[in-house]
Amino acid sequence: MSFQTQYGQWALVAGASEGLGAGYAKELASRGLNLVLVARRSELLQTLSMQISETYHVQIITLALDLSSPESLDQILQATNELEIGLLVYNAAYSAVGPFLDTALDGHIRELNTNIRAPLYLTYLLGQRMLARGHGGIVLMSSLSAYQGSAYISAYAATKAFNIVLAEGLWEEWRTRGVDVLVCVAGAVKTPNYLASEPEKTGGPGDMTMAPAIVVREALNTLGRQPYVIPGRMNRVSSFVMRHLLPRKSAIKFMGKVLRDMYVK
Fold first, then answer.
1. Which domains does the chain possess?
2. What pTM value is reported for the model?
């Protein structure tokens, strides 16, 4: 079955203005899917839309919305009510980096709304439509930081753990009903947001940060084959060591040291 046959004419990419989201948009357009692109920054969305339209000649709808706002989710559903969204890619995320109490409580609530409430909402309502049609796909983005407590991004990592468990459970529920669900558990990716967080260790020998296009291709090529993917061989090796060889306490302490060195000046 071709990619377009399995996932229909339209894909919705949340968090699509740059980085991984833009990578998903370009790759899906190259596979013939029309796009609904959702992100906060209208200017970036419009620029990306024009680039993709000129290259791949697909239809594109842009929605400049803040996914931390509950009202934005209803707006998405209303805007796509007449479209057959056969593929959802939820890439949007908000991360408060630094000591937990240095971020105001509203910031952590924003993490919950963006990273948990919004993907749950869209997965539920778009998933209903997909199951009724008997085909479709959902990709939720997660992070290697979700596999253990991760100091200095504690709430973010916790929200990403939710997405791993949600996607794996739905993969089992829906895999015989024509709807593929995948969680992409990514390591560090060279996106503008990642670089803007000013980690001290980006680039250089031994660095494992990945290009967005590579992460996107691995995820989409895995969709329909298994419930999760960790892009990048070295990320898979380090994840195996952290989860299966190190005691959990040691893994938490190691992750804490890495993040402290990166973000605590």
1. 3-263 (3.40.50.720)
2. 0.92
